[in-house]
Input
Amino acid sequence: MLYHLLVPLASSVKLFNVFKYLTFRTIYAMITALVLSFIVGPWVIRRLETLQARQVIRTDGPESHLKKQGTPTMGGVLILVCIVLPTLLWADLTNHFIWLTLFITIGYGVLGFVDDYKKVVEKNPKGLSPRQKMFWQIILAGLVGIVLYCLPYFKVTGFSTELYLPFFKRVHPDLGILFIPFVTLVIVGASNAVNLTDGLDGLAIGPVAINAATYMLFGYIAGNAKLSGYLQIPYVPGSGELAILCGAMVGAGIGFLWYNSYPAEVFMGDVGSLSLGGTLGTLAVLTKQEILLVIVGGVFVVEALSVIFQVGSYKYRGKRIFRMAPIHHHFELKGVAEPKIIVRFWIITIILALVAISTLKMR
Output
């Protein structure tokens, strides 16, 4: 919005030239999201308490979690507001990548909100069924895949359906029509992986912010013809604008962590975790760095795999691999303090992010 209002004035007032620069707008999108979270956060928490939107703790989980009973949840609403508004304020709103990402951010957020509302406000313990959630996740993600596949037919710069692999600069198979289910898999998988990780105070939002910062860099480079050519990564015209949304995501994540850090004043709920995961998956697709999401989002991947392996082992062998899944509960039951698990997972995510960034020079 500010971009469209102030950039045209640059011809008469040189000061407004700064609004043309992607780096300037990214920084201020981040600051705007952070400040907004500090201003709106206390009000959102009070509203959630008024709605009696309080977390219900499972009795079969770690005993240390029982003291969290009654903590306000659905705080992901705050995160979404602090991502969407700064993005609308600072981004070029003619950019179709911005709208595609916001479509998933808001769409998955609404899906998570409905599920949370049924569970914690209407006191319906089932909420949306797993099938219902999965159905809508697939539909929304599939629409993004279809739009990207069909962009050339809308006389928009075509979006490549090739899959680029780290470490192999000449290996990029064209998925063709299979690109649509691939996009769906990436977005839905990322969404559910973040959702499974959201089990300790600040455990999910820390890695999400780190992932968003990493894709802020990838988006900026992919949208710059010279940088992408030098680093031999796919050039995606227009993807640089995603750095602004990523900046807002980082600011919103840090702002939410102010309230969500141990001991948490509020939990994000599905409205936050489903939306944030879906957004990360979409960013990975739009920057053509889908495979790197497995690396930079390694914590999310391990959390999801721990559940898959636990369920599979118990179903076919009658034995558990972990004391409890997802894996962060396994460490809790082994006696590792919750804050230590959280910070160690953050540290691991930072290391993985650096590894992912290092691949830019290994092509």
